[in-house]
Amino acid sequence: MKVSGFTIVRNAVKYNYPVVESIRSILPVCDEFVVNVGDSEDETLDVIQSLASEKVRIIENEWDMTQKSEVLSYQTNLALDACRGDWAFYLQSDEVVHEDDLGKLKEVMRRYQDDPGVDALRFQWLHFYGSYYRYRIDRGWYQKQDRIIRNNGMIESFGDAYAFRRKDGQELRRRNTGCFIYHYGWVQPQEVMAQRRANAEEIGFVSLADKERDKKYSYGDLNRFPAYFGTHPKVMEERTAAHSLSRDDWKNIGRKYWWFPGKWLRARCKTGKRVKERIS
Q: What does the angle CA 77 – CA 10 – CA 42 come to, to the nearest 5 degrees?
């Protein structure tokens, strides 16, 4: 069984994407890792080259921004086309996998390797927001998605590259891994988050109100979101330790939930209660 990791990245330094941590998080279970590096305004290519792993294979492309949100799926499919493994393991540049899940993921891939009735393997999501110890489960934040697909030429990325589909129009046949994707795209300094939102509007992902174009993005009161008591992937230790808002938030969580066993056990789980109303 051969496993190809793949991702796309552009302006990772400018927008503070943890792409190196993302790649390193699954590199142990990959036989190769294809990185599609877009034409950047910063040192993104140097950062990827600094990984210095024989497994990492870099392809370079210019991104056609006239494609708007479709540019991400187009570039993702270019990276997928370069993969040579039986399975293709996709991570976006702000998504990370916990090291404790790697053995389980390899076992699941091996279990379904020769099963033609399985197209994809699905993960649960932890969308961290503002703090490394708060996550979103309200409407508009998807909680499950596929990230490992069978590399048989029949599956493609679509839309803004958050999901995959079969090219023949049939429903994607999937199995659950029982593992998490740690999504860190919304844990950023307020100035960086504001820049990323402006960039997203320019590409065509979102439409912002005037008040949302401030120089500093406001996360609001973090207490309105569930607290995360578990550990983070080891590759993220340096980032989590350096994030002052998260340090303060963890202290507040400790005072509020001093009695809660999950805080001391550091269990990697999230609440099953789904908030249906959008929290602004």
A: 160
